[in-house]
Amino acid sequence: MKEINTSEFDTHVLENDGIVLVDFSATWCGPCKMQKPVLEQMEDQLEIYSVDVDQSPELAGRYNVNAVPSLMLFKGGVLKNTLVGFQAKEVILEEVEKLK
């Protein structure tokens, strides 16, 4: 899972024609640490990027990230869904399927 910053976000997420999951998280967040291995299991099925809200506060502000982890699903560069808090792999994949 590649960590991206504000300058890379447009290229990797907004200019992407496919489905992309962005994990807005923080190093100090316990549930974020639990979420990471779940997301790593899905990397072969889905394009996933991580944004550290402390390193990229303007990006977190742009998407109104008020809690971490916040998982945002984009399709064709458009935000389609946000899942807040720890999410099981099955829940995430179910939401991805709805976008296909």
TrEMBL record:
Keywords: Disulfide bond, Electron transport, Redox-active center, Transport. InterPro entries: Thioredoxin, Thioredoxin-like_sf, Thioredoxin_CS, Thioredoxin_domain. Pfam families: Thioredoxin. The keyword Electron transport applies. It comes from the Bacteria. Transmembrane segments: none annotated. Disulfide bonds join 29-32. CDD domains: TRX_family. GO terms for cellular component: cytosol. GO terms for biological process: cell redox homeostasis. The record marks 30-31 as: Contributes to redox potential value. GO terms for molecular function: protein-disulfide reductase activity. The record marks 23 as: Deprotonates C-terminal active site Cys. The active site is at 29 (nucleophile), 32 (nucleophile). Residues 1-100 form the Thioredoxin domain. The keyword Phosphoprotein does not apply. Belongs to the thioredoxin family. This is Thioredoxin.
